[in-house]
Write a structure and sequence with these properties.
6 helices, 3 domains, alpha+beta
């Protein structure tokens, strides 16, 4: 097999696949990328892991058809260093390949392509058409709250729900690690969804989804099958393993009432929390304390070895005083994920989750459990 492709097309396809191949066990067949000619002017790239399968195509001038399976790490690393020139990739007799552009050349290790597992064309029972930008927003505003605890696998991803509302669909995306929760609600017109559907997207696939959509515009067809969710565009698809467990009932932790309610400038609050973080040691829980009184919010942090920090913000608040503490990092993540100049903090009591919401977008909310000190 041999082909020549524009560097940007080749690099774009490899970028989509770069995080999928096995990184630790480089002797695994899953550490390789499969390239196949599908005609005189197209090459198909396949990357697989246990959680994610990517199939994408890119334009190329195919001089000799065929297949090759090459080390994902070697190919991606070498391709990043190629100069701006047409890229040539040619398979050699030992299943390796010569990669060149301009006056730069690499020899890329490979294996017999027949050893690679076949990527099955996914068959989906239900589909919904979603804007690309909505899916990217889902990753940006929700995914940070996914759990990294392998002992709680049902929290190791984003819970995605879709329900038809006439010609539209109500989309809900949720992530939680038990200490915080992020939720996004959106309504999509002309979504083409026939019945309600829900799935937990594995966090590995959530990470790869944003790469997959990097240069995509328009609508993405999201299909659901028993054990996977498929994101399909004109050039290919990304199949993400579904975590086949029950997601917890998160609705019961969302407070319906608040004893304290405060609207505050988001930028000012982020700045105050960041300033407090200067005195927090990296090996300790990043704890920040709020003291709310009429007209002002005090943001404080203390560390026996690094000192104390104190900032004040003017606020339009006239209620009863409040003292409450939070994980500094969780608070900053939540503020970053909310849009607009102002946010609202709603506190039911010092032992219930605090709700952070956007003044400009009632479809987004963040929950953070306070820390007892």
């Amino acid at each position: 097999m041999e082909f020549v492709a524009a560097r940007k097309d080749f690099a774009s396809a490899l970028m989509k696949a770069s995080g999928i191949p096995e990184q630790k066990n480089l002797s695994s067949v899953m550490a390789n990328l499969l390239l196949e000619s599908t005609g005189e002017d197209t090459v198909r790239l396949t990357a697989q892991s246990y959680e994610v399968t990517l199939v994408t195509t890119f334009p190329a001038q195919v001089a000799q058809g065929g297949r090759m399976a090459l080390s994902g790490r070697s190919l991606v690393d070498a391709a990043r260093m190629l100069p701006e020139a047409p890229v040539r990739l040619r398979r050699t007799p030992n299943h390796w390949a010569d990669l060149s552009a301009g006056r730069t050349e690499y020899k890329i290790p490979g294996i017999l392509p027949e050893n690679m597992p076949e990527a099955q064309e996914p068959q989906t029972s239900l589909e919904v058409k979603l804007p690309r930008d909505l899916l990217v927003e889902m990753v940006d505003r929700v995914s940070f709250a996914q759990s990294m605890d392998e002992g709680r696998p049902n929290l190791n991803g984003i819970y995605l729900k879709a329900a038809p509302e006439g010609e539209a669909a109500r989309i809900e995306a949720v992530a939680t690690d038990g200490h915080r929760l992020s939720r996004m609600l959106r309504t999509v017109e002309n979504a083409g969804l026939a019945e309600p559907v829900a799935a937990i997207l594995h966090r590995k696939g959530v990470t790869e989804l944003k790469r997959f959509l990097e240069d995509v515009t328009g609508v993405v067809t999201v299909g659901f099958q028993r054990n996977a969710v498929v994101f399909r565009v004109e050039t290919g698809f990304l199949m993400v393993r579904q975590i086949e467990l029950e997601y917890p009932d998160y609705h019961r932790v969302i407070p319906s009432e608040a004893r304290w309610r405060l609207e505050v400038d988001r930028g000012e609050l982020q700045g105050a929390v960041n300033r407090a973080g200067v005195v927090i040691s990296s090996d300790k829980t990043p704890l920040v304390r709020f003291k709310l009184d009429a007209g002002r919010l005090q943001v404080q942090a203390q560390d026996p070895e690094r000192g104390d920090a104190h900032s004040e913000i003017d606020v339009g608040y006239e209620g009863e005083p409040l003292e409450i503490s939070y994980n500094n990092k969780y608070l900053l993540d939540a503020l970053k994920a909310l849009p607009g100049p102002s946010v609202v903090l709603s506190v039911k009591d010092q032992s219930s989750a605090t709700l952070l919401s956007s003044v400009n977008d009632d479809g987004l909310l963040q929950l953070i459990m306070p820390v007892r000190v």
